[in-house]
């Protein structure tokens, strides 16, 4: 099994990944305006997120509008909403499970139970990383394709915001932590397969003498 220090390092990576995943889901700056055209005089930054659109004016005012209608949103935003929420839930489950399965904790029972808990937590982290990476890549692809489209006016073009980079980094941290936790439970079993326990064989004379002794007792 992996050392306690390696598991603690993976746990810290997963913890940062969970916080980053939640922050990326809630932040409104998934895409920001490209700061082109004449509108930059009255509005410094226009941001669009999964749940709201915000505008930061040059006067210092900051206004946001929630996206109440789900069906009116593009498909990639709807998919990003669902998968990012699932990523947050799975990563939170992974934190709870790996807390029980880590070697540095006194929870989870014996060594085999801790190994199974580490494997289950690692799978949760890997799934959370995949659920966070796929929608972020899809969202970034839509931003880039719209930015390179010549038919779209310059004022409607956007660039990836800070939430996109936060989601990418968080997904990477969760994947790394999940791989470490998932592979940590195989090392002990692999050693048992390579070096099987020795079986003690008694000499035939000793076995026969013991058998004879038992028969005499019954007679």
TrEMBL record:
Q: What compartments host this protein? A: Cell junction, Tight junction; Cell membrane
Q: How does it sit in the membrane?
A: Multi-pass membrane protein
The record's keywords, sorted A to Z, are: Cell junction, Cell membrane, Membrane, Signal, Tight junction, Transmembrane, Transmembrane helix
Which residue ranges run through the membrane?
Answer: 84-105, 117-139, 163-181
InterPro entries reported in the protein's UniProt record:
Claudin (IPR006187), Claudin_CS (IPR017974), PMP22/EMP/MP20/Claudin (IPR004031)
Q: Return the GO cellular component terms, semicolon-separated.
A: bicellular tight junction; plasma membrane
Signal peptide residue numbers:
1-24
GO MF: structural molecule activity
What role does it play? Claudins function as major constituents of the tight junction complexes that regulate the permeability of epithelia.
> Its family?
Belongs to the claudin family.
Annotated protein name in UniProt: Claudin
Q: Which organism is it from?
A: Eurystomus gularis
- Origin organism lineage: Eukaryota, Metazoa, Chordata, Craniata, Vertebrata
Q: Which gene encodes it?
A: Cldn20
């Amino acid at each position: 099994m992996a050392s306690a220090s390696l598991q603690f390092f993976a746990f810290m990576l997963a913890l940062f990944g969970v916080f980053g995943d939640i922050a990326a889901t809630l932040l409104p700056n998934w895409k920001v305006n490209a700061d082109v055209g004449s509108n930059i005089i009255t509005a410094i930054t226009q941001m669009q997120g999964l749940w709201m659109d915000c505008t930061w004016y040059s006067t210092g005012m900051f206004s946001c509008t929630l996206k109440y209608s789900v069906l009116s949103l593009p498909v990639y935003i709807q998919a990003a909403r669902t998968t990012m929420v699932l990523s947050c839930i799975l990563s939170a489950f992974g934190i709870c499970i790996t807390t029980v399965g880590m070697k540095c904790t006194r929870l989870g029972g014996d060594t085999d139970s801790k190994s199974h808990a580490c494997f289950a937590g690692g799978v949760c982290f890997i799934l959370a990383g995949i659920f966070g990476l796929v929608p972020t890549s899809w969202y970034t692809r839509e931003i880039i394709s719209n930015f390179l489209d010549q038919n779209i006016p310059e004022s409607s073009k956007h660039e990836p915001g800070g939430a996109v980079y936060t989601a990418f980094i968080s997904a990477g941290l969760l994947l790394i932590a999940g791989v470490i936790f998932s592979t940590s439970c195989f090392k002990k079993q692999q050693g048992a397969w390579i070096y099987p326990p020795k079986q003690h064989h008694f000499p035939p004379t000793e076995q026969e003498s013991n058998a004879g002794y038992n028969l005499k007792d019954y007679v």
